[in-house]
Amino acid sequence: MERSGTSGDPGVRVLVAFESRKGSTREIVETIAAEINTAGWDVDVIEIKDSPRPDEYGYVIIGGPLHMGKIKGVRNFVDMRNLKGVRPTQLTLAGFSVQNGGK
Ligand SMILES: Cc1cc2nc3c(=O)[nH]c(=O)nc-3n(C[C@H](O)[C@H](O)[C@H](O)COP(=O)(O)O)c2cc1C
Q: Could you tell me the pLDDT band of residue 78, with boundaries at 50, 70 and 90?
């Protein structure tokens, strides 16, 4: 994807599917979605629990937090929707901050 103001393909929509328990991943994916939208693409940001439909989109970005080393919600979504190898998919993860000693 290019970053100029009007570079999005007309009619090609981007799905940003995410899971967020405390809100950090939500903030991250909303920031990403705003950038993509500024670049001229139509973007929908939908929580995984609301059953987004990746097959209706040209691109899919998935975000989720690490919990005990696992990305369970994201993994279930990828498996359930058969996303592996289907189309370019970016995984965005939120984990411990490296600042403040990881707190
Ligand atoms: C119970 C629990 C387990 C966690 N396990 C990990 C972990 O294994 N690795 C990691 O990097 N971060 C871990 N974290 C940190 C979260 O991934 C991090 O706070 C993330 O930003 C939370 O995302 P959310 O606000 O979208 O829910 C854990 C947080 C909690 C509450």
A: confident
Residue 66 located in a structural domain = yes
| Phi/psi of residue 62, nearest 5 degrees | -120, 135
| Closest C-alpha to 17, from 77, 76, 70 | 77
pLDDT tier, 100 (very low <50, low <70, confident <90, very high otherwise): very low
What CATH number should be reported for the domain holding residue 40? Answer: 3.40.50.360
CB–CB of 40/86 below 8 Å?
no
Pocket mutation for ligand 1, best pick of 70, 96, 99, 103 (most atoms within 8 Å of C-beta):
96
Give the pLDDT confidence of 52-77 residue by residue, as tens digits.
999 889 889 999 999 888 888 888 99
Q: What atom in ligand 1 is closest to the CA of residue 63?
A: 26
Q: In which domain, by residue range, is 64 found?
A: 13-95
